[in-house]
Specification:
Blueprint: H1 3-10, E1 34-35, E2 60-61, E3 66-77, E4 85-90, E5 96-102, E6 107-113, E7 121-124, E8 145-150, E9 157-163, H2 169-174, E10 178-184, H3 186-191, E11 199-209, E12 215-216, H4 228-231, E13 234-235, E14 238-241, E15 244-245, E16 248-253, E17 255-262, E18 269-274, E19 280-285, E20 288-296, E21 299-301, E22 306-312, E23 321-326, E24 335-344, E25 368-376, E26 385-387, E27 399-401, E28 406-413, E29 417-421, E30 426-431, E31 446-449, E32 454-460, E33 466-472, H5 475-479, E34 483-488
Parallel strand pairs: 1-13, 3-6, 5-10, 11-17, 16-24, 25-28, 27-34
Antiparallel strand pairs: 2-3, 3-4, 6-8, 7-9, 9-10, 11-12, 11-14, 14-15, 17-22, 18-21, 18-23, 19-20, 19-22, 23-24, 25-26, 28-32, 29-31, 29-33, 30-32, 33-34
Bound molecules: CU-O-CU linkage (C2O) and copper (II) ion.
């Protein structure tokens, strides 16, 4: 069967008509998704130490390029104390090891697939030629290998890499296929921001666990029909940071750069410090540094989004405990990570008032406006998540865009949908309820849409002709075909 036949064959009965038409849908506040409950015994929050994923060294370098090698394989990790969790991991790790590359210096990452399933690797936020972008149908079979080529013609930014296999991104990312890829450059280094062990990537995800410690994830056989628990988006009841449940981390009384990434399948977060004596000083977003630091009381993160903040733990002093909490979670889903301030320390870091320059994309120079609608089908052959009223068809081109043109894209939604665009970041121009929101600054590649909202962004694609994607980054919505293709030329 081709995809359309599969989708047609799903029909209403397999899915349960009660969940359609916008009636009878009940989701936790601020979420689109079905909460799963763990059967396993869970640790008390803030008892497990925070892991920091290791940085991968290049396997070799030549005059122009750094070469890296990663093996995707199964492993068993102790995520919950005393239990083993089978994962699919880059180098057998979850999160995968961190890649650190430099703007302007190409990197080649060779992925070997030692798993029993096909994979595709997408560098989220990467300015990447189409043949290395990890298209969902461009898979590496079990036993295969592939070189992903990243020219790295882009600014310093917190990127991440994750699986993007057609129809299976949700389950494969849930099993562990996600890691950080940090891009740095001379501009960033010159700023004097916190570095070394005071620059910490924090991958925030949610999971549910079976009694035996394995991840709990609903059945997702697109041929047999899928359950509501899968269809709406999967919410776990355990918050993992860098793969550890509600971890605790010791810090000195100094400034720390925290690179917050929401790598959850469907869960949104509103993060705040408790006590809130010092602000979260936002210095960057998806596409790198902001022009100026912005003091935030809270940081809103939808799946796929990143926010770089600096926290000055000197405001608390030795002995203090500072907790990052989630205002969009109830019970322990409202807990994230705790920092324990150990001692005073010298601190040469700075947060300059001018961080970077951001070239504006003037909307009055836009050559056209396109509307993209993110909506669930009420009726019809495909009862799932649609983009512009259609399920994703990899053989169809949904838009042709000229490289170098500025366009305005208007995204509209029925429920919460984090909208992600490949190839190049965009700038948020307006939300229906007014100007850009407090979390829309800088270059973005993922934007959080609330129910019945519309967001206008300015896009401009450069350098690489080919097929690229835009899609909802609620991974179950993505797998259920809320995705479209644009072609650049
Ligand atoms: Cu992070 Cu197309 O995805
Ligand atoms: Cu969605």
């Amino acid at each position: 069967m081709n995809r359309r036949q599969i989708l047609g064959a799903l029909g209403f009965s397999a899915l349960g008509a009660a969940s359609f038409g916008g009636l009878g849908l009940t989701f936790p506040r601020g979420q689109t998704g079905e909460p799963l409950r763990s059967g396993a015994r869970l640790p008390r929050p803030y008892t497990v130490p925070l892991p920091i994923p290791p940085v991968v060294r290049p396997s070799r370098s030549d005059a122009t390029t750094d070469f890296y090698e990663l093996v995707q394989r199964e492993a068993e990790l102790e995520i919950l104390p005393g239990l083993r969790t089978p994962v699919l991991g880059y180098d057998g790790r979850f999160p995968g090891p961190t890649l650190v590359t430099r703007g302007g210096r190409p990197a080649v990452v060779t992925h070997r697939n030692d798993l029993t399933v096909p994979i595709s690797v997408h560098l989220h936020g990467g300015h990447t030629p189409a043949d290395s972008d990890g298209h969902p149908t461009d898979v590496v079979p079990p036993g295969g290998r592939r070189d992903y080529r990243y020219p790295m013609r882009q600014r310093a930014a917190t990127l991440w890499y994750h699986d993007h296999r057609m129809d299976f991104t949700g389950p494969q990312v849930n099993r562990g296929l996600a890691g950080f890829h940090l891009v740095t450059d001379d501009e960033e280094v010159a700023l004097g921001l916190p570095t070394g062990d005071r620059d910490i990537p924090l991958m925030i995800t949610d999971r549910a666990f079976e009694e035996d410690g394995s991840f709990r994830y609903p059945a997702h056989d697109h041929h047999a029909g899928v359950t509501d628990a899968y269809m709406e988006g999967v919410l776990g009841d355990v918050i993992l940071v860098n793969g550890a449940p509600w971890p605790v981390h010791e810090v000195t009384a100094a400034r720390y750069r925290l690179r917050l990434l929401n790598a959850s399948g469907a869960r949104r977060y509103r993060l705040r410090l408790d006590p809130s004596r010092t602000p979260l000083v936002q210095i960057g977003s998806d596409g790198g540094l902001l022009e100026r630091p912005v003091e935030q009381d809270t940081v809103l993160l939808a799946p796929g989004e990143r926010c770089d903040v600096v926290v000055d733990f000197a405001a608390f002093g030795p002995g203090a405990e500072v907790t990052l909490r989630n205002g969009l979670g109830t019970g322990n889903a409202g807990e994230v990570i705790r920092f324990r301030v150990t001692s005073r320390a010298s601190d040469e870091s700075r947060i300059p008032q001018q961080l970077s320059r951001i070239e504006p994309l003037p909307p009055d120079r836009a050559v056209r406006t396109r509307t993209w609608t993110f909506r669930r089908a009420a009726t019809g052959a495909h009862p799932g998540w649609l983009l512009d009223g259609r399920p994703f068809d990899p053989a169809r081109i949904d838009a042709d865009v000229r490289l170098g043109d500025i366009e305005i894209w208007r995204f509209t939604s029925d429920l919460y949908h984090p909208v992600h665009v490949h190839l190049d970041p965009f700038q948020v121009l307006a939300r229906r309820r007014g100007g850009p929101g407090p979390h829309d600054a800088g270059w973005k590649d993922t934007v959080d849409l609330s129910p019945s909202e519309s967001v206008e962004v300015a896009v401009r694609f450069t350098d690489y002709p080919g097929r690229y994607l835009l899609h909802c980054h609620n991974l179950e919505h993505e797998d259920m075909a809320m995705m479209a293709t644009f072609r650049t030329s």
